Amino acid sequence: MGYKTFKYTSQNNLIHSGRYLYGGFSYEFGNQYLNKVKFQVSNSNREIKLDIIYVSAATAANIYYDFAIQTITLKKSSYYFGLHIGNDFNLNFFPRIDTRNLLWFNQSFGGISIISKYKLNNNNHINFSTHIPVLSSVFYNKLNRLTSEIPDDKKIQSYSGFPIKLFNADAEIGYVFSKFGFDWGIFYQFEMNKINETASNQLTGMAQSASLRIIY
Q1: What is the reported pLDDT for 52?
Q2: For residue 19, how many other CB atoms are within 10 A of its CB?
Q3: How many Å is the Cα radius of gyration of the chain?
Q4: What is the three-class DSSP state of 5?
Q5: CB count, 10 Å around CB of 111?
Q6: pLDDT tens, 194-204?
Q7: What single DSSP character describes residue 10?
Q8: FRET pair for 28, CA 20 to 30 Å: which of 21, 67, 79, 86?
């Protein structure tokens, strides 16, 4: 559970903000060569009062893959550096900028993966990971929220860019411990996504969350 916001530069205000819930699954294998696959879905909505009451909503599905090589090993810690690829699909309703349509975008990206593992004792350790983008591409369009038709037969738009235009980064830190016969993790996660199509047409999304996970 956490808090998510979207800001549209040309409007100079928040077009969506509110609590969000997410869930997912990840699988990690390898030691010297670490592989990690992660899938996550999330939803955030909030009532916004304009001329009439609307609900703004932001729904996302994310899938990530990391391949990292163990480059530094100390007595109680290991450090991995490698490659990260991912894909985010977002389906949003922001009545502040469009009362008729759902706004969707699909963003693919690749970059650098940094993972650290710190062993406190035999049962407890701290995990840290971050992803730094290098190159991204985004496809986007609108759908009528009542009929699901594309307004004015508008074609799907797309563009690619480096972090100065498309910046999609995240980081998380977690404390893992054993209790009741299971391994548990308490994690804090931060995400930032900036889509800069032009100097005056920029969408910035930010999300912060805390989660309790079962690790097996």
Answers
A1: 57
A2: 12
A3: 19
A4: strand
A5: 19
A6: 998 776 788 99
A7: T
A8: 21
What are the residues whose beta carbons fall under 8 Å from the beta carbon of 12, sequence distance 6 or more? none
Whole-angstrom CA distances from 45 to 20, 171, 201, 203 are 7, 23, 23, 18
Domains of the chain in start order, with CATH, are 2-215 (2.40.128.90)
Amino acid (1-letter code) at residue 57: A
> Nearest 5°: CA angle at 209, between 181 and 184?
5
How many angstroms separate the CA atoms of 158 and 66, rounded?
25
- Please give the structure tokens belonging to residue 6: 């979207």
Distance CA 138, CA 133 (A): 13
Residue 51's pLDDT is 55
Q: Are strands 77-93 and 101-119 parallel, antiparallel or unpaired?
A: antiparallel
**Cβ count within 10 A of residue 136:** 23
CA distance 187 to 176: 9
> What is the rounded CA–CA span in Å between residue 15 and residue 52?
16
In which residue ranges of the chain is pLDDT below 50? none
| Contact (Cβ atoms closer than 8 angstroms) between residue 68 and residue 81 | yes
**How many residues does the structure list for the chain?**
216
**CB distance 212 to 186 below 8 Å:** yes
Q: What tokens appear for 98 in the block?
A: 């469009």
Q: Which residue has the tokens 């992660």?
A: 38
Structure confidence at residue 50 (pLDDT): 58
